[in-house]
Design a protein that fits this description.
With 329 residues, the protein is mainly alpha-helical. It contains 11 helices and 2 strands. A hairpin with a 2-residue loop joins β1 and β2. It starts with 5 loop residues before the first helix and ends with a helix.
Length: 329
């Protein structure tokens, strides 16, 4: 039996020729070769395009990375520019405090004060008796008095400032009264409050009220007086009511001035309450400072000074955020 080999099969596919002759390509093989050649022509430019585009993509990614690094460095510089100066200032204050504590006998240093603060704030809301409570209750009682007196001052001072700024007659009538009473020391009003209200707590609130009202009156009146006359002429042309003038024209324009007065007033109120409570007694941060002084507990006095500063800062920052939140700009 004859075995078929590649040489035997080749003539059958390529045509009739001997094994030594050159095979004649068939039509099918010619088509396949043309297709392969065409595909090579098509794929080669694509490969060349990819090779040409690849360096550009690498450069784009490198440029993006460099830009991200620049943004990060810029943010880092801004953060350090914002954070380093306060840190340096606080560090210098602690160094000076430490030097004073070494030079002056009886002045506690930062370490002993921090230890006393840790013990003090470990239980800030204890109650042993009505006059012996934790630092938390003292702060809350002082904030309650400040909120009451400041709220009353705002309810009276802001509308009065609008009236004074709106009408020239009222401005001229109240100018000598404000000029006379504004420079009076807040504590000078305390005996009047004790005489009228016959109690320490209303007297302290009265001192806060009479001290915090002046910045709100003055700043609000100045803001109203600076409203452009063109705005008021438009209101007359449109025949707006007084309520519309106040709410649509005066209030948006006066708001920055008014909030400045409010910020000044809250600072004055928190400043006054410490001195008022020292004289009136009861539960409050001012009375607590005076009581600790009688006990010669200087660490607690320094802690109270820091607490008063931190609370005042938080109140001012809170009002600043509120002013930005409701700004008409």
């Amino acid at each position: 039996m004859t075995t078929l080999t590649i040489k035997n099969i080749a003539p059958l596919k390529g045509g009739a020729h001997t094994s030594g002759d050159t095979p004649i390509p068939s039509a099918e093989s010619k088509d396949n070769a043309m297709d392969t050649h065409a595909s090579d022509k098509v794929t080669m430019p694509a490969a060349n395009a990819d090779n040409m585009m690849h360096p550009q993509s690498v450069q784009a990614r490198s440029a993006a990375a460099v830009q991200n690094d620049r943004k990060f460095m810029k943010l880092a510089r801004q953060f350090f520019a914002w954070a380093i100066p306060p840190v340096i200032g606080l560090s210098l204050m602690i160094v000076v405090w430490t030097l004073i504590s070494y030079q002056s006998q009886g002045v506690p240093g930062p370490v002993s004060t921090f230890k006393a603060a840790a013990v003090l704030f470990s239980d800030p809301f204890y109650i042993n008796n009505p006059n012996d409570v934790g630092i938390g209750w003292n702060i809350l009682n002082s904030l309650q008095r400040v909120a009451t007196g400041f709220g009353m001052a705002a309810l009276v001072g802001i509308p009065l400032g609008f009236i004074i700024g709106r009408y020239e007659f009222m401005s001229r009538m109240t100018a000598p009264i404000i000029s006379l009473l504004k420079p009076v020391s807040p504590l000078a009003w305390l005996p009047i409050g004790l005489l009228v209200f016959k109690a320490a707590n209303p007297a302290a609130i009265w001192v806060i009220f009479i001290s915090a009202i002046w910045p709100m009156i003055i700043n609000t009146a100045v803001g109203v007086s600076k409203v452009p006359q063109d705005y008021m002429n438009v209101a007359k042309v449109l025949n707006l009511s007084e309520w519309k003038i106040v709410t649509k024209i005066l209030f948006p324009y006066v708001l920055p001035y008014m909030m400045t007065g409010v910020r000044l007033s809250i600072g004055v109120a928190w400043l006054v309450i410490v001195a008022a409570e020292m004289l009136t007694g009861g539960v409050g941060i001012g009375f607590w400072v005076w009581d600790e002084w009688n006990n010669l507990n200087v660490e607690h006095i320094i802690i109270a000074i820091v607490i008063v500063g931190v609370v005042g800062l938080l109140l001012e920052q809170g009002l600043t955020m509120l002013a930005k939140r409701f700004s008409y700009e």
